[in-house]
Specification:
globular; 3 helices; single chain; 13% helix; seven-stranded parallel sheet
């Protein structure tokens, strides 16, 4: 098997720092540096590695010798991450994925490029995961479900069996999607929300917010 090529991470914030940790510590990948859009270049180093403008990255880190990973979150309904992935591909970079050694992945590798699959994620058999999908720690994607492109699934979210999640969706922390329903593109399923029927494209669904009780915490006993 050919050795993995050095890796350039697009981004220089918290997600990029996490990606550096996971790729270096768990996947055994060499991170050679970081890049950002030139307009956002503030420092020339991050985590002891060079940071360069994306417009100039190919001059120092040739696409023929390096892979790239887009280490961004869900800004603009994941559009920003999708735009940078397209730009990296247009520049000739191969896109790689991180899949934790502590994840349970049983779908025969049907996962698109630029996936970020963290620890304790469960992907059951017969699942299809699109391109540019983030599955945060503890998320579950159940059997025969299909996750579209540019989707962000937050910690401990549960997608039940036979679900279709459209492109550019966001599923919040501890959200639950019932089996055999469709979540239209560009939906937001808020933290703790339970979705029991199909979600129209562009819909926002949220759980009731926590309400402060009349008493103070110090008045409670047994805690």
């Amino acid at each position: 098997m050919a050795a993995s090529r050095p890796l350039i991470l697009f981004g220089a914030g918290d997600i990029a720092e996490l990606a550096h940790f996971y790729f270096s510590r768990d996947a055994g990948r060499q991170v050679a540096g970081f890049c950002v859009d030139g307009a956002y270049l503030r420092e020339d180093s991050f985590l002891g590695l060079p940071v360069v403008a994306f417009e100039e990255v190919a001059a120092g880190f040739a696409p023929a010798q390096h892979d790239m990973f887009i280490a961004l979150a869900y800004a603009r309904m994941n559009d920003l991450r999708a735009e940078k992935l397209a730009a990296a591909e247009a520049a000739g970079y191969g896109l790689t994925s991180y899949i934790s050694s502590r994840a349970t992945v049983l779908n025969d590798g049907r996962i698109g490029v630029n996936a970020f699959v963290q620890e304790d994620v469960t992907i059951q058999p017969f699942v299809t995961i699109g391109r540019n999908v983030t599955l945060w720690a503890g998320a579950t994607i159940s059997h025969h479900s299909r996750i579209g492109d540019n989707v962000f699934v937050a910690p401990n979210a549960v997608v039940s069996g036979g679900v279709v999640v459209g492109d550019n969706c966001f599923l919040g922390v501890n959200s639950t999607v019932r089996n055999h329903i469709t979540v239209g593109p560009r939906c937001v399923i808020g933290a703790g929300a339970v979705l029991l029927r199909d979600a129209e494209p562009g819909g926002v669904y949220r759980a009731p917010s926590a309400t402060r009780l009349a008493q103070d915490a110090d008045s409670l006993t047994g805690l």
